[in-house]
Amino acid sequence: MAAHLLSAPSLKSNPAKTPSLSWRPSLPSSFAPLPLPRRAAARSVVVLAVDAKPTVLVAEKLGAAGLDLLKTFANVDCSYDLTQEELCTKISLCDALIVRSGTKVSREVFESSGGRLKVVGRAGVGIDNVDLSAATEHGCLVVNAPTANTVAAAEHGIALLTAMARNVAQADASVKAGKWQRNKYVGVSLVGKTLAIMGFGKVGSEVARRAKGLGMHVVAHDPYAPADRAHAIGVDLVSFEEAISTADFISLHMPLTPATSKILNDESFAKMKKGVRIVNVARGGVIDEDALVRALDAGTVAQAALDVFTEEPPAKDSKLILHENVTATPHLGASTTEAQEGVAIEIAEAVVGALKGELAATAVNAPMVPAEVLSELAPFVVVAEKLGRLAVQLVAGGSGVKSVKVTYASARAPDDLDTRLLRAMIIKGLIEPISSAFVNLVNADFTAKQRGLRITEERILLDGSPENPLEYIQVQIANVESKFASAISETGEVKVEGRVKDGKPHLTRVGSFNVDVSLEGSLILCRQVDQPGMIGKVGSILGSENVNVSFMSVGRIAPRKHAVMAIGVDEEPEKETLKKIGDIPAIEEFVFLKL
Ligand SMILES: NC(=O)c1ccc[n+]([C@@H]2O[C@H](COP(=O)([O-])OP(=O)(O)OC[C@H]3O[C@@H](n4cnc5c(N)ncnc54)[C@H](O)[C@@H]3O)[C@@H](O)[C@H]2O)c1
Ligand SMILES: O=C(O)[C@H](O)COP(=O)(O)O
């Protein structure tokens, strides 16, 4: 599935002219990384220059097909069982890291990467072993492989359920120990019993389907699952209390989050039917393991079958593991040949796609951005970043940029226009010229917040055809002074507006002056008294200094009154040249801005 979603746009074909998807600060476009918006299933990412072969560190065993795929694109370093220290040392030489659940990708790992690590690929579902906040803060994309092991995990859940009910593991050990204890290992039947599925997502619903086939009555608790999806397979969604208090069997399938941590604890065990049986193929941390031992000792819980543990591997003398009513497996839920091949391909595709700058369908810390949305927004992405860059350069030193209003004018209904990518690019444009920060779609909002930059977005709904996603974008910075007074609008903000014309980004308004200048190269803005010959005077100064003018436009309030002249230049003029322009008597103020 990921393959289709990753076969994205042609954006990387000309990095100098298109929005760079790379997160690598040294791309020729000069504005590094970034990525994208939403709608169905794709998200963003990015990479490395075409010239360098990236290095991917595979820190846990990965299926051969996935490794082969990685090797077609990258140098692959398979180093297993690294200590945290070794991982931190190696990571500064890697562009991507692939792990399963056995590697902790801690903040320290991101800090040790020196900014080189662009993608972490989790070859599986659970990302609780990856410090997502640290990844986001470091602009590192995290992708996972959420679908390929679903059936394997569900099958393992059913295997544990049936094995537990019939004491398969204990009886097997007993027979191997030379015993024949038929009375001791009398089991319980599943048919007609109530199974509560806690977490009705991909794995939970597959377990439910299979349990229905075994003749069980299945209920589920999941605050976020749609009831009709449950009804479609004959499952009722019930409250947490109802689920745990009516079940003969409880099977856990929620992610480990602060909300689900130790969700089964002394209090919840006390509410369960005496003799309940529990299966956990989700994460060990969703059960308070000490409380489970107490519940097993008290007989409240008759049996537990566990694939996952708070600490993996668990201590050898763990009371839980050694409990005679516990069946344990070493986190084998995803471990089928088929699932591991599938996961390896799924993650390799996601990581390679990300490194190439394509969309990632399974990004966990960046908004989803389908390819078609990206391609239609691409020219506006350039406008957005350049407006941000212009606006911040117009602010007078010492003003402090705190509050930015972005207005999108469009004939599209608000829910049909995803502006996250544009917002990210405006933030990038606002922050990068005045700091050493490296901003991309992953860390844009975080970086803005960290700097106390408040971005508000507004929509102007236009009449007309919604074919064009946007008519124009306005960026306004409030409560600041400008080094070019004419950039201050009637309402007192630094204001710039841009739109796409013939596929090219154009600046169309500065303050209250309409202009029309292509946003390429650099820009000189002059306020002058409108009079004949001004264009010629400025043009000849620039020409005599060998500065090529790419575009010129004059916006005026009325003939012979004030006007703003916008001049696009290919080269950066010398200070002396700019001074000569400023010395033209009719020029009241001017500013040079780098795009
Ligand atoms: N043992 C293994 O090898 C193995 C294999 C695959 C998945 N897993 C684990 O299984 C779990 C489920 O995986 P999935 O692919 O089905 O994920 P999923 O995201 O498709 O489903 C998780 C479901 O849990 C629900 N949920 C979230 N908070 C909840 C709460 N407080 N109470 C009840 N439900 C809640 C979500 O709404 C979602 O529907 C994850 O923890 C995953 O890491 C383990
Ligand atoms: O979250 C998952 O995908 C499973 O727990 C599998 O983990 P693993 O990749 O370590 O087997």
UniProtKB/TrEMBL annotation:
Residues 1-23 are annotated as: Disordered. This is D-3-phosphoglycerate dehydrogenase. Its EC number is 1.1.1.95. Pathway: Amino-acid biosynthesis; L-serine biosynthesis; L-serine from 3-phospho-D-glycerate: step 1/3. It comes from Stephania japonica. CDD domains: ACT_3PGDH-xct, PGDH_4. It is found in: Plastid, Chloroplast. It catalyses: (2R)-3-phosphoglycerate + NAD(+) = 3-phosphooxypyruvate + NADH + H(+). Pfam families: 2-Hacid_dh, 2-Hacid_dh_C, ACT, PGDH_inter. Belongs to the D-isomer specific 2-hydroxyacid dehydrogenase family. SMART domains: AdoHcyase_NAD. Residues 523-595 form the ACT domain. One of its GO terms (cellular component) is chloroplast stroma. PROSITE patterns: ACT, D_2_HYDROXYACID_DH_1, D_2_HYDROXYACID_DH_2, D_2_HYDROXYACID_DH_3. Its main location: plastid. GO terms for biological process: L-serine biosynthetic process. Gene3D superfamilies: 3.30.70.260, D-3-phosphoglycerate dehydrogenase, domain 3, NAD(P)-binding Rossmann-like Domain.
